[in-house]
Design goal:
Blueprint (H helix, E strand, L loop, with lengths): L1 H23 L3 H19 L3 H7 L4 H9 L12 E6 L1 H11 L9 H9 L2 E3 L10 E8 L5 E7 L4 E2 L3 E10 L2 E6 L8 H7 L4 H9 L3 H4 L6 E6 L1 H11 L8 H9 L2 E2 L11 E9 L2 E10 L2 E4 L2 E10 L2 E6 L8 H7 L4 H9 L3 H4 L5 E6 L1 H11 L9 H9 L2 E2 L11 E4 L6 E5 L5 E2 L3 E10 L2 E6 L6
Parallel strand pairs: 1-7, 8-14, 15-21
Antiparallel strand pairs: 1-2, 3-4, 4-5, 5-6, 6-7, 8-9, 10-11, 11-12, 12-13, 13-14, 15-16, 17-18, 18-19, 19-20, 20-21
Helix pairs in contact: 1-2
């Protein structure tokens, strides 16, 4: 900074003059006064931290009071570089009025600290470096994850709430951008509203009357949030608009994007998760597949992760995730690709896509490979529709049976000549030696349980 360099230059000259004065001046009192003047000047030159700038401005007196009350002065007065979105006095007055409070003394210290730290981002992010997108504040949700803020470069809005009115006040340890409102840690719904790229999701949530559900601070959710382009693709596929979809049609779709747990990207693993959408009296399942190519949720790719909200975390996806029937569940999972091929060849897709209810004991690809060896065939192509149909129907029971609802005994299948002998004494086995290896994958028309052998009538 040129100004700072000049101040140092003048301070050095002043000290040089002071030395000459000490030699020529006989009055000890005068020497002490001059010494104090120079030390004060040097101290003023050195003091150009974020806190120093705030203290020097009458517009930030309430901010300084808040920092002092929350014991954050030293944190912002060190050498670590920060970007601070600094609310003015008027911004704090509006907040107190909004909250129905008289003064900062009415705000608990821990809440005040969380709010103040929510205005701070690590690093020196000048206006030229700031781009539209999410930034992690230094306000903690957990030991490892901090609340996110959304900055829109087009209109200079933070969380669609506060506007940057004066950017780039440079400090020795960072940069200050003045804002006209205090920003509060955002809920999942708040984040959806703030990001214009999620406006279709916001409109759908409002129409389905789910905003209050996604604002519930008593739970931590994980939301897979489809982009506007994702909704556009869905509407084109269905040949509808949002106006054409009722609340009853939207609700199960939207809830199918919500998991009732806080699952940041680092904790996402391949496998099935239950969503908040219901089918046949149970929570519907979605398949997560983690690979080198990225993370898929059913047919949707996660394109942005870890938007941390007060009541959960958002991962943005490029497609709308539709609730799946038992056939769709098999199609989505590559471990069932041979089963899908068999169902298609036997012309059973339509039947198993109906209302149900069904329970499908689904053999994995490895199970089919073992069968092919036993039959001395190369694959499904060597088996006729007439041979496949009774085999496949022997894997389907005409009810929705979670593993916890199974009991010892026989279950009739859609193959009238074949019943399954169920034993639950040591896990769940079928016909003595067939094991459930994945249980309770719930679809809209029934449940799927993966098994390790093909059931042969």
């Amino acid at each position: 900074m040129k100004t700072l360099q000049l101040k140092w230059y003048y301070a050095i000259i002043a000290m040089f003059i002071l030395n000459i004065t000490f030699v020529s001046c006989d009055d000890d009192d005068d020497q002490e006064i001059l010494q104090e003047m120079i030390e004060d000047e040097v101290e003023d030159v050195v003091g150009n931290t974020i806190v120093d700038i705030a203290v020097a401005s009458s517009d930030f007196s309430i901010l300084v009071e808040a920092l002092t009350k929350a014991d954050l002065v030293s944190a912002l007065n060190g050498s670590t570089e920060y970007t601070v979105f600094a609310p003015t006095n008027d911004a704090f007055k509006m907040l107190l009025e909004e909250l129905g409070l008289n003064s900062l003394d009415d705000v608990p210290e821990d809440q005040l600290k969380a709010i103040l730290l929510y205005h701070v981002v690590s690093g020196k992010n000048t206006s030229s470096k700031l781009m539209s997108g999410y930034y992690s504040s230094i306000s903690s949700k957990t030991d490892m994850y901090n609340y996110s803020i959304y900055f829109n470069k087009d209109d200079l809005m933070v969380n669609a709430r506060a506007k940057v009115t004066q950017p780039d006040i440079m400090a020795d340890n960072g940069v200050i951008h003045v804002i006209n409102k205090v920003i509060l840690p955002a809920s999942i719904t708040d984040h959806a509203i703030a990001n214009s790229g999620l406006s279709s999701l916001t409109a759908a949530v409002v129409k389905a009357d789910l905003a209050a559900t996604l604002d519930d601070d008593s739970n931590d959710f994980t939301v897979f949030a489809p982009t506007n382009d994702a909704f556009t693709m869905l509407f084109e596929d269905l040949n509808v608009t949002l106006d054409d979809l009722s609340k009853e049609a939207l609700t199960p779709i939207l809830l199918h994007h919500v998991v009732n747990a806080f699952v940041p990207a680092a904790n996402v693993q391949s496998g099935y998760v239950n969503t908040l959408s219901m089918g046949q009296g149970n929570y519907l399942s979605a398949l997560i597949n983690v690979s080198d190519a990225g993370v898929m949720v059913d047919k949707a790719m996660i394109v942005l992760t870890d938007v941390v909200a007060t009541n959960g975390v958002i991962h943005v996806v490029d497609k709308v995730i539709m609730p799946s029937n038992v056939v769709d569940l098999a199609i989505t999972n590559p471990a069932f690709s041979i089963l899908v091929e068999a169902v298609v060849k036997a012309d059973l897709v339509g039947a198993l896509s109906g209302e149900g209810p069904f329970t499908v004991f689904a053999p994995t690809n490895a199970a089919f490979e073992t069968l092919f060896q036993q039959l001395n065939v190369s694959g499904i192509s060597d088996l006729s529709k007439e041979a496949l149909t009774p085999i496949l129907l022997a894997h389907v029971v005409a009810k929705n049976a979670q593993s916890t609802n199974l009991v010892n005994g026989y279950e009739n299948t859609l193959n009238g000549d074949k019943s399954l002998m169920i034993n639950i004494d040591n896990g769940v086995t079928i016909d003595g030696d067939i094991n459930l290896i994945i249980a309770n994958v719930q679809g809209t028309n029934g449940a799927v349980h993966a098994i390790d052998k093909v059931i042969v009538p």
